[in-house]
Design a protein that fits this description.
The complex is a heterodimer of chains A (212) and B (10). With 212 residues, chain A is an all-alpha fold. Chain A has one domain. In chain A, 71% of the residues lie in helices and 2% in strands. In chain A, strands 1-2 form a two-stranded antiparallel sheet. Chain B contains no helices and no strands. The radius of gyration of chain B is 7 Å and the shape is elongated. The N and C termini of chain B lie far apart (19 Å). The chains are: A mainly alpha (212), B little secondary structure (10).
Chain lengths: 212, 10
């Protein structure tokens, strides 16, 4: 464990909790893509099946459990409790266009052709594109509330910190996991455009809206 | 080289 990974994990956790709290306190999930949140729940479920097979640390286990619980709580709030506020007319990204190719790729390119390893690989590939329905929704409506922007910034920050973590681990331990690194870089690139808008607009106190 | 036996990252 190094500081980049720890801060990355905490940034990820902050993003997840911030979103949950926003939905809970505003009693609304307007502007949030339920599809992205469903995909994240699927990501955590397929990745953390190793909770049953290997123990790494108390930290590792508790974070996994918290991520899974929060992901399902978010999905529950969007699709059940505050369903009436869910903006499904704007959440039109076809999630199957992500899940199916990613599933195929996980079968073809993986470290080991075993069920658990294929599911882990699937979750890594899926995580890299799971935010696309949310970004698509923002591009459709043309704006995002500032709290949604903070959420995305923390998620993107988590990815960027993981890249630094991989560089650090490569030089200090000789460790690298090519699948995680390539997927992680793809994921970070998806946030670049958003980062630019965030820095130029949200930080200066404006609502994030796209140039007309 | 990576150790893919156990994935220790979240």
């Amino acid at each position: 464990m190094n500081v980049f990974r720890l801060v990355g994990d905490l940034s990820h956790l902050l993003a997840i909790i911030m979103l949950l709290k926003k939905i809970w306190s505003s009693r609304s999930c307007a502007g949030i893509s339920g599809k992205s949140q469903l995909l994240f729940a699927l990501v955590f479920t397929t990745r953390y099946l190793d909770l049953f097979t290997s123990f790494i640390s108390v930290y590792n286990t508790s974070m996994k459990v918290i991520y899974i619980l929060c992901a399902y709580a978010t999905v529950y709030l969007i699709y059940v409790k505050f369903k009436a506020t869910y903006d499904h007319n704007h959440d039109t990204f076809r999630a199957e266009f992500l899940v199916v190719p990613v599933g195929g790729l996980a079968f073809l390119v993986n470290h080991d052709f075993t069920p658990l390893e294929i599911l882990w690989t699937f979750s890594i590939y899926l995580e890299s594109v799971a935010i696309m329905p949310q970004l698509f929704m923002i591009s459709k409506t043309g704006e995002a509330e500032s709290i949604t922007s903070h959420y995305l910034f923390c998620l993107g920050g988590y990815r960027a910190l993981y890249i630094i973590n991989w560089l650090y681990r490569f030089y200090s331990e000789g460790f690298f996991d090519l699948i995680a690194i390539v997927a992680g870089c793809v994921q970070t690139i998806l946030y670049c455009d958003f980062f630019y808008l965030y820095i130029t607009k949200v930080i200066y106190g404006q609502k994030l809206s796209l140039p007309a | 080289s990576g150790d893919y036996e156990v994935h220790d990252e979240l």
